[in-house]
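Can anyone check this?
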Amino acid sequence: MKILLHTCCGPCSIYPVQVLRQMDMDVMGFFYRHNIHPYTECIKREDTLKQYADTIGLKMIYQQDYEMEKFIQSVVFREKDRCRYCYHDRLNTTALVAKKGKFDGFSTTLLYSRFQKHDLIHETGKALAKQYGLKFLYQDFREGWKQGIEESKSLGMYRQQYCGCIYSEKDRFYKP
C-alpha cells in the first residue's frame, strides 16, 4: 500500500514510520505547516524533520507558504473547538495531496500522541477518505510513545513542548 503520512514533526514520526515500514507500506511523509506558531517554531520542526527524514531515507513533501492568518481566522471565536478545525485542515490537505499523488491512502503521526483526540482524528480521516476515494489508515501508535521519546532524545532531536498552534503554546506555558 502506498501511503502518505502527515508528519507533524521529527520525534512524532519515528515510531509511526517504523511500524508502517514493518507493515510493508510504501511510506512518504507530508509536512503541513500553517498551524505551527510562531514561524521560528515551524522552521525548527521542519529542519529537524528534514534531518531525520534524510537519515532514514524517508521521502517527504513539504508544504509551501505559511498561512498563519488563515488558520487563526478559522478558529477565532471557536478556540475551545480549534482541534476539530486543525485536524480537518491538516488531514484534508494530506488527502488532497495523496489523491493528486495517486497514493492508496493516508494517515497521520497525530495518532502517535497521547495528547491528541484519537476518536476525532479517526472520524475526520474516515470521512475525508470516503470523500476522496482513498483509505484512511487508523493505527494507534501510542504504544510506541516511550520508544519514540527515547529514540528522539538519543538522536539529539529538537523536541517541542506543545502541539503547534499559538493557543496550545499558551495552554502549555501560561499558568494563571
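Reply from J.R.: I decoded it. Strands lie at 2-7, 26-31, 60-62, 105-108, 135-136.
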